[in-house]
Amino acid sequence: MITARAAASFDPVGRSVATARAFVRDTLQGWGYTDIVDDAVVLTSELVTNAVVHAGTTADVLCLRTDEGVRVEVGDRYPERDVPLQGTAQSFGSPDREGGRGLLLCAALASRWGVDYAPTHKHVWFQLDLPARPVGIRSAGPVLPVEHLPVADGRVRVAVVQIDRSGAINAWNEDAEELFGYDADQVTGKQLTDFAAWPHTPGIATGIADALQLSRWEGSYGVRAADGRTVPVYASHLRVRDTSGEPSTVCLLVRDFERAVLQSPQRTPGDTAKGSLSEGRTTDPFEVFIGSPAPDDLDGLLQRTVERSRDMLDADSAFLLLATDDETELEVRATTGLPSARQRFARVPVEAGTGRYGSARMPAVHDDLTAVPGAVPLLNGTGMRSVVTVPLKVEGRLTGSLGVAAEAPGRYSNEEALRLQFAADRIALAVESARLGELERLRRGSLSFLVEASDLLAGTLDRDQTLALMAQMTVPTLATWCAVYTIADQSSEPYLSFVLHEDEERIDGLKALLSKIDPPEPVPAPGARVWNAPAEAAHQAALRTSMRSLGLGSTPHVGSGIGTTLATAAAVGGETVVLPLVARNRVIGMLTLGKPTDDHFRQEILELAEDLSRRAALALDNSRLYSERMAISQSLQRSLLPPELPHVPNVEVEVIYRAAGEGNEVGGDFYDLFPIRDGAYGFAIGDVCGTGPEAAAVTGLARHALRLLAREGFGGPAVLERLNAAILDEGARSRFLTLLYGELWPQEDGGAILKVVCAGHPLPLRLRPDGSVEPAAEPQPLLGVMEDLELYEQTVTLDPGDVLLCVTDGVTERREGTRMLGDDGLADVLATCTGLTAGAVAARILRAVERFAAEPASDDMAILAMRVPMPHHP
């Protein structure tokens, strides 16, 4: 049954993919489905990419919340594409091919998926089920439907059994008689171990007698009933003492499937601790250490484990290490009573040897670490003398190590090792399950992170923005601070290009520190390598600052230079690693990541950073190539533009030019105004078929040929005929050209005489002072089509106050739907320009063109306005 829905549509543009991911992430988090967010985001990203990039249509995303989980549908408007059938040899093709990855991921990650077709669209959908949770215990939630509650066979019976210090039964209630079939007289005075079938829980090798010695314990085992059968029970044991100080153990037992009756509630951090242990430590005697519900996160479970281990054996410290994936090293994951910041995520090899963890696979008790230095490397320099360590094993595999230590020697015996091993056996499966869950979440979160990082890096070709994105993606997600070094070429030294710290106030100090030390060597070898120079430089700077402060007899304060130096030293005093930025088999820079004092990187973080560095290197190199080619293109394009317009006496001239396309300064439209000889000026405005570099090449040919031929003394028709021949000589590269060419002679009396040839170009318009508008030439054949042209020139006289407007078809063919500005629309706009200067006329025409349609212009546009000013009378 659908309980909630959310829908959105996304335009067929690249940025819609990131927007769709954010929509799905926000929706699922709002529904409380954080367990499946990463999978849903990855699948949505791939399917929306297929819709908006490959299919090129609008993507419709629909999120449906059901009782089982979440269903996400992604629809596009391109139903003709085939979807490979499951079970065939070519179901998905190669994973490396460009298309089909979304369906491949659906098959790998989704619980169910499919494709629904309609005549006008198709929907690719996937369903993610919520993780299974045990029913009837606390982790299932505070409220359960009635049908999901555990079934009790009759009323719930709670057997109460009390055992004295010798293990003999001295109390047996009526529910115990009913559950197990023994009368109280039959069991009083007998050992409980005579009736216990241990172990009932698989994988437990410690006897119940040892469990009864613990101050508090919960767990499962079996009791042999009077009829010989074994009754599985869930028991809660509590050690108490009477007023005379005599200890005993009270056991509460229920049938195993009714364990929710006795399951201890999870404490919150705000709970008040009760009871007492030695040396002033306090704990709640009813709080469960082994068998109680685990915290939701692995770190919380591990931290609680080491704290309870320390308290159980009345130790000064405790620690827990987990095995790495290849089980060759142990990684510090939780400590108490030790400098955890310095030790967290540090790794120790398991095999025996100097500086290695030789006792990891078997329980071990060390009476005095000073006699066996290096036996437990984690405790070096901590002042701990005696220690007991036990392995965490699941199905015979070493998954970790649990240890407690004390400052005094000889504190622990084999009995304490047995108690700690029993605790480790009970907690090992829960720890391993949580560790694997964390690892899976990290992997899927890493995949989602890399998908979004790739999308962001691919969205820009600006070098500075790429550098900023690289740093912002690593801080604070992967590291506390980041520095990016770039290398211009193989002969250049690495250059510090960007620095970022999670605390913005420390960026300047960090940049100053890094600029004073030699950059790391540009080694192309993959992977992260440790770079000690920043930490050493920070340490030296802090040492010098401290000595100066002592010499001055003052204490450094936060706002002083001394305080800033010490803060910077603390910020970079931890582990620093360098990852090479390699693109196209060349080191183009280094990505440097750092941690604060005494902190280390996890291996998973370094692997993720390495994946990110490969993507960032390619994006940075692409931005470099784009910048170089853009600089070359702009330089070449600027060479096609005429230099500054010459001053024409007694004539106002204004030109406005707009090239279509991003990064283009010159396209197929062009203009020119140049002196021919004394008192004569040539002007031209033309339009080459098409836009972009190919059209710009013909533009350069036309503009330079016009100048050369005009200055050789050829008249207008001869100039255009020879230009026509030059264009045809280009062969396959030739393009037809519309051109308005003229020669201008300003007159001393204030007028101007023009001789013009209009070869297939929009006709020039003359505006008179009375507001009338008329064409100033007749149409003639365009250039670049026919070899033999018969062109002629026409004479136009501009009187004072007249305006001659010349435009390209990018102006007249401006469209909004089915409407077009056209020649008549241009004439209407020009009629409103009486009395305006040439610059004002050109600006009004441009404004009218831009306002005619909402979309940006798709064609090049040039406007040339010439006006003879009215004479000034004193």
UniProtKB/TrEMBL annotation:
PROSITE patterns: PAS. It holds the Pfam family PAS. Keywords: Hydrolase. SUPFAM superfamilies: GAF domain-like (SSF55781), PP2C-like (SSF81606), PYP-like sensor domain (PAS domain) (SSF55785). Residues 160-192 form the PAS domain. CDD domains: HATPase_RsbW-like, PAS. Gene3D superfamilies: 3.30.450.40, Histidine kinase-like ATPase, C-terminal domain, PAS domain, PPM-type phosphatase domain. Residues 263-282 are annotated as: Disordered. InterPro entries: Bact_Sigma-Reg (IPR052016), GAF (IPR003018), GAF-like_dom_sf (IPR029016), HATPase_C_sf (IPR036890), HATPase_dom (IPR003594), PAS (IPR000014), PAS-like_dom_sf (IPR035965), PAS_fold (IPR013767). This is PAS domain-containing protein. It comes from Streptomyces chryseus. The lineage of its organism: Bacteria, Bacillati, Actinomycetota, Actinomycetes, Kitasatosporales.
